[in-house]
Amino acid sequence: MIPKLIKTAADLQTKHRAICDGFLTQALQKTEKAEPFVEEAKTFYKALKKVKSVEELLTSPKYRNDLASACGFSDKAQSQLTEMELSGAIKKVLTRIYKEAGAEFREDILYRYLLTKGDTLGGSMRNLTGASAGTKLTEKIIERLSGGKKKIQVLKSRSGKIQRVIWNGRTLLFDVKPPLIGKNIDVILINRGDIDTPEEKLLADKSKYIACGELKGGIDPAGADEHWKTANSALGRIRAAFGRSAPALFFVGAAIEASMAKEIYKQLKTSKLTHAANLNEDEQVNDLVDWLLSL
């Protein structure tokens, strides 16, 4: 049965206005997140202007991490190297920078530092964008449950991310990896209402699965097809793992292009998907949440 608010594939397609608003939101978020990076870069450059040579930089441990960034080593890369390995690599790269840049080595180091930090900021933004779909859906679910005056329990991680929402013998889990599938699933609704039960035990019984869904919060149309391919593959793995007893499947996306919308609509018509919604369309999201809570 096709959701009542989706009459044609075009109903799922992301409108141009939503794309513009999404990019503006991301730009404002990125501006805010960039501020500490800018301040750190200013402090680093002040230190650079005080040194007379690369050798002086190498002997000072104070800005070692900043120098590692200038040499192209991300925080993850640094964690994979020993102190000796990283020091040796920094020395080789800085020596080469000095040889090529000469008297302008300070500016060259700063520009390279900014390139690496830009990648770090970009990764942070991708994570934020990826989490936005889950955040919006979770807020809607809690809002609906609270409005219905149902007793709910919410389990959060140390960072404040919602991991479980529990009500009336139901548990909704976010971003978990069921052993029977072997890959992460964005949302799983199971017929069990425990807050203290370990995740693996909650997910062990196939018969308890009610619904599974994939969420994609990126708004960039250029990446929409790739996001759908990833989500569709995940949904396919669920079908393969459960066979004829597969739970209800749904998809929520922020960037849904015309070809994507047609494919999603086709899957709704053939019951490969049970529900779908465009994240920018509040009525569609509300309808999906109401359906999910009715299961």
* Low-confidence residue ranges: none
The name of the CATH architecture of the largest domain is 3-Layer(aba) Sandwich
The DSSP helix count reads 10
The fraction of residues in strands falls at 5-15%
User: What average pLDDT do the residues reach?
Assistant: 88
Q: Please list the strands of the largest sheet in the order they lie side by side.
A: 1-2-3-4-5-6-7
| Count of domains | 2
* CATH topology call of the largest domain: Restriction Endonuclease
Structural class: alpha/beta
Along the chain, the helix and strand elements come as HHHHHHEEEEHEHEHEH
How is the main sheet built? 7 strands, mixed
Give the helix proportion (percent range): 40-55%
Could you tell me the radius of gyration in angstroms? 24 Å
The separation of the N and C termini measures 14 Å
The count of DSSP E runs of length 2 or more, i.e. the number of strands, is: 7
